[in-house]
Write a structure and sequence with these properties.
heterodimer, A: about 75% helix, B: alpha/beta, 5-stranded mixed barrel, 4 helices, elongated
């Protein structure tokens, strides 16, 4: 604990308490929403109206402003879930469990968006909706991992036992993440190699890169809003018999 | 960290290492099957299966696209800048098919060593740029873009 400054460590300890976390999140969400709207507006405007057409794909390439951020989020959320799962297993921290299980449906959604937008782009560009190459297949496995985590959590009655089972599943599945990322380099795939996340300069013109990064940041804020909302609901369900929840309901009645 | 927590952390790391090792061995074992296509060098060196369907990937050699007769049949050469393979295809080509473009074709080798394709897919590369930039790059050096593996 000595390497972490005392105020930061105190903040995290306070946040581990559900009522304090609940109240803090309530205040945070409007600000996150404001930033999200600003970033999405700027990203979509620059991406769809200002950025030039591609030299080969014309306007069809603009689907990357949804496809790529969604695909990045699908990996990002999974890694976050695995970290929360680790914390939940080692420290038995309730809030880590809540964040992990609340993230799963959102991650599944982003994975689904990435798969569908990629497929819509693949038909005119590649000439096919779907191929069983390493990138597409490993991303599909990621969707099944998310769905597995959601159903496992639903299948076990006790929320704390269920969380521990989900944590183990999520941590085992994390080996798929580097496979997805490096699949395009380790094997011959129909999917192209990395454009931005690679050593050296990104192979995308700066006027197209800026809206992409704006959208990627906007998606991060969207995830933050969605997961905090879901976490609030999950906390209320888990703590429904406690004093502070009863008080909260009375105040809002 | 309390001893019990250290023990749990150890168990998690052990589990992760075990799974990673198992997956690595599995992927190594199926390495060939995970390749979506063979390169033209593989085919020229006889590594591709004979008398069975497989996929071949490469760049369309500039100036090699020919249409003998007035049918839908196209002849072209594919290359990985090492060895070339002749390809024959009858059918509709995808939008991105052009000389210098990466493609993946599914088909089989005939007796003369020509790859007879049943399906042709365009492989997009990882480069995105406006047309003006592509034009000026082209003027600077007329080299074809490298195909990313």
């Amino acid at each position: 604990m000595s390497i972490i400054p005392a105020p930061v460590s105190r903040f995290f300890h306070r946040m581990a308490s559900p009522p304090i976390f609940y109240a803090f999140v309530d205040k945070l969400i409007p600000w996150l929403s404001l930033i999200f709207i600003g970033l999405t507006g700027a990203g979509l405007y620059l991406g769809l109206f200002v950025a030039p057409a591609d030299y080969q794909q014309g306007d069809s390439y603009r689907i990357i402003y949804i496809h790529v951020p969604a695909a990045w989020m699908s990996l990002f959320i999974y890694v976050l879930m695995a970290i929360c799962g680790g914390i939940a297993l080692i420290w038995r921290m309730k809030l880590a469990e809540v964040m992990m299980v609340s993230s799963a449906p959102i991650g599944a959604g982003f994975t689904f968006i990435a798969l569908v937008t990629g497929s819509l782009w693949g038909k005119p560009m590649w000439g096919t909706w779907w191929v069983w190459d390493a990138r597409l297949t490993s991303e599909l496995i990621l969707l099944f991992l998310y769905l597995g985590a959601i159903s496992l959590y639903g299948a076990i009655e006790d929320r704390r036992t269920a969380s521990r089972a989900v944590a183990i599943l999520v941590i085992v599945g994390v080996v798929n993440i580097p496979i997805i990322h490096y699949s395009v380099q380790w094997w011959n795939t129909l999917h192209q190699g990395p454009t931005v996340a690679k050593a050296g300069k990104p192979s995308i013109h700066i006027s197209m890169l800026i809206p992409l990064l704006l959208m990627a940041t906007a998606f991060k804020f969207h995830y933050a809003i969605a997961v905090l909302q879901a976490a609030k609901v999950e906390i209320l369900k888990r703590e429904q018999n406690t004093q502070w929840v009863k008080k909260l309901i009375e105040e809002n009645a | 960290m309390k001893p019990i927590r250290k023990q749990r952390l150890g168990l998690i790391l052990l589990m992760l290492a075990g799974v990673a090792l198992a997956v690595t061995f599995a992927l190594k074992a199926f390495n060939e099957n995970l390749m979506y296509f063979f390169s033209t060098t593989d085919v020229a060196e006889g590594k591709a299966p004979e008398n069975s369907l497989f996929r071949l990937g490469g760049m369309v050699v500039k100036g090699s696209v020919k249409r003998p007769g007035d049918g839908m049949t196209v002849h072209f050469k594919l290359t990985d800048y090492n060895k070339e393979v002749n390809v024959e295809y009858t059918g509709i080509l995808p939008d991105l098919f052009r000389e210098g473009q990466g493609i993946v074709a599914k088909g089989r080798l005939n007796k003369r060593g020509v790859f007879v394709a049943e399906e042709v897919l365009a492989k997009h590369d990882e480069n995105y740029m406006p047309p003006e930039v592509a034009d000026s790059l082209k003027k600077q050096h007329d080299a074809p873009t490298r195909m990313e593996k």
